[in-house]
Amino acid sequence: MNIMSSESDEVSVNRRRSSTRRQHRFRIGSSSNDVTGASEDEAQPVRLRVRGKYMKYSSDQKNMFIRLYEEGQSIKDAASLAGLTWGTGKFLVMKYKRNGSELTEQGRGGPRGKKLNQNVLDAIESLVEENPGITLKEMKSILASRNIILSKSTIDNGLRLLKITLKIASKEVDRMNSPESIRRRREYALRFNEWAPTERGNLVFIDESGFNLHLRRTQARSRKNSRAVVTVPTIRGRNTTLIMAMNNQAVIHFKVIPIGNCNAIRFNEFLTELSSKLQHHRDTYLVMDLK
């Protein structure tokens, strides 16, 4: 394949372009009205050239230009016959020579592949269900072992789509929801349903709970890049215990123990006070935790 060059034509075109630049060049002096080489009346404002939109050429035009160029036409003549500009023709020749006499089309945009499809989202959700405390780094490593390559930011976006957020974890003892515990709770619920009275208001539930008055939140707000500090007393306050009896309608009786925990003596005192309030209630059942 013989490709003829047209250096003389390119040199002549460059000379004409340089001459055009010299004709439109102005040298501005110290004053805005002082234009070198022209009087004040003859001075004209400098015209700024604004680049227009890029022209789009079809593959047929480009192939036609290359064919004419191979047949011996100059870049200027081949571009004119193919409906291209001289600059576009020069760029095509350079690209043609660089690719080894082959003109390849360059891809333009198009939709990107969607990484977070339904299968990937299901895999991320299953990881969180198996281990709620898993980190983004750990998820990235596990997914990579399954040939799912994702960045940590993409995984975080997937969690947002699944509406899975990071929050303070609630600790739960593993034996509370063990199969044995679930079985025992089910048996108790069946027995309770057998002997419980039809009037559910006759069931009085009793329980006690201890708490501290100097509780503080585990989260706080502060400015960015600064610590969130919450002031707490130097000496932690003593625990307070609350005992309460209630049915499905209202609280029947309660007692606050300001200092110390609930022992047998204090609990018996609470039952005595409760019995005095239940004198007019018949067939009352007390439900409490014996532990």
UniProtKB/TrEMBL annotation:
A GO molecular function term, named singly, is: nucleic acid binding
Region (Disordered) spans which residues? 1-42
What GO CC annotations are associated with the protein?
Answer: nucleus
Q: Which residues form the Tc1-like transposase DDE domain?
A: 203-289
Location within or outside the cell = Nucleus
Bias (Basic residues): 14-27
Q: Where is the Insertion element IS150 protein InsJ-like helix-turn-helix domain?
A: 66-112
- Tell me where on the tree of life, at the top rank, the source sits: Eukaryota
Q: What is this protein called?
A: 3-isopropylmalate dehydratase small subunit
- Name the source organism: Lygus hesperus
**Taxonomic lineage of the native organism:** Eukaryota, Metazoa, Ecdysozoa, Arthropoda, Hexapoda
